[in-house]
Amino acid sequence: MTPDQHIRVLVTGATGYIGSRLVPALLAAGHEVRVLTRSADRLASRAWHDEVDIIEGDATSRSDLDTALADIDVAYYLLHSMDGGDNFEERDREMARTFGLAAQGAGVQRIVYLSGLHPAAEKLSSHLASRVEVGDLLMASGVPTVVLQAAIIVGSGSASFEMLRHLTHNLPAMITPKWVNNRIQPIAISDVLHYLVGAAEIEGEPNRTFDIGGPDVLTYRDMIHRFAKAAGLRDRAIITVPVLTPWLASHWVGLVTPVPSGIAKPLVGSLVHEVVCHENDVDTTIGAPEGGAKTFEEAVTAALAGKDEGSRPEPGTVEPGRLTAADPDWAG
Hints:
The protein is α/β, with parallel strands linked by helices. The protein is 36% helix and 16% strand. The protein is globular.
């Protein structure tokens, strides 16, 4: 596949944070887009609604997947369980297996999956380990799969960014776990979209992971300080303690932020790991974003733009970092 080729793509998770922004980016790149959603009504207000083929169905159903994947060149797998429910690992495992089998049966040429950065030789949190396993299952499906691995995605509406935003806004002083000193390589949502769109256009049949990240390697402590400065807040006092477990920390986050506990708990659990890029092959394979990847400060500035406006614009009509009508009520 090449950038000037007419590519037919399927986007799953189109009602989510990434999917709602990816669809207009793919349309802008000239690709033909189909989306699979459990509720077509949830997409009725999207500005791109009439520009895509909408299939109502369930990604756990093989027959629904067969319908959605028919005549598709590239399938974006943007599904994972972050609802706080039990057995999410098995649910994610089974859904990935079913999707891979259906994609192979439909003759899909490529799967693209957004996963998480993780250390190479370390016991991972349940959430992060499941994300990695899903990528492995898709790569083993028989369909060439591009797995993009990102750490914290900086942009309004991103659960990780909203957690950072609300912690910094609500707590002028905070007692934090020692993981606030772990290194993290955040990436702007606009750059994530650049790589996701580019993943559909790679020539050949790559079947591998690619690390993606911005130019800055920071600690969570650094990000709190830099967010406060960018938001015009006075600097935050941060005291670390060694005994605040991920379980306790997730409840603490739930008390001081509006991020739902089913989302906050796995995110906090994953912060015990240092997550930095181990390679930068993606910029050779896909190419770097025009002008280079955004710095953390540039990404935060983009995310805060328009924060005082009364209405939320449609995704695809403004810079991707902005808060949009597709984002949850607790964002912003």
